[in-house]
Amino acid sequence: MIRVLLVDDQPLLRSGFRALLDIEDDIEVVAEAADGQQALILAREHLPDIALVDIQMPVLDGIEATRQIAADPTLAGVHVVILTNYGLDEHVFHALRAGAAGFLVKDIEPADLVHAVRVAARGDALLAPSITRKLIDRYVTEPLRTETRARLKELTNRERETVVLLARGLSNDQIAERMVISPLTAKTHINRAMTKLHVRDRAQLVVIAYESGLVAPRER
Hints:
Elements lengths: L1 E6 L3 H12 L4 E7 L2 H11 L3 E5 L7 H10 L7 E6 L5 H9 L3 E4 L4 H12 L7 H11 L6 H7 L4 H11 L4 H8 L3 H15 L4 H10 L9
Parallel strand pairs: 1-2, 1-3, 3-4, 4-5
Helix pairs in contact: 2-3, 3-4, 8-10, 8-11, 9-10
């Protein structure tokens, strides 16, 4: 069962999302929060698999709530998916850097919402390569942190190759086929890269791949 925490200051939107998700046999909405501070309390209480978090909220916004969730070891299993009205913008990019697994536009089709929750629960990033390129190209204004560059050097050639392929949008199965390895080995390479780079989600691996130059933002 995929456990979901809904975080938005609009009760009507929360009700709508709950109605869509609760009818699924494998998804359960365990709690709702109206701001980021309440979200942190409920996340620690319920330990959801997914937190659907609005960016703009009172008390504590979605970006800071994401950052605090990502920094809390007790919430390591919580995948944050950002909700936005505006699609690609600087807030989305900063949320991804803060630790979000991806983002969804609030007018998403019901079937796509359910699919996205399942994808995020598997630990996959909700980031199409084309979207990632636009975000990185538009909003990266500072160099990659020195410690991250140092950690990149710790990656083996195979781990580095899996990160590049992941950033280009390939799934575990596609990465395995490209590298002539098993999907389990591909997943192991990705998990080891995440550990070495001190990131909690594949989305952060994708961002680092573009920021570091492993994959060029304008690459086709």
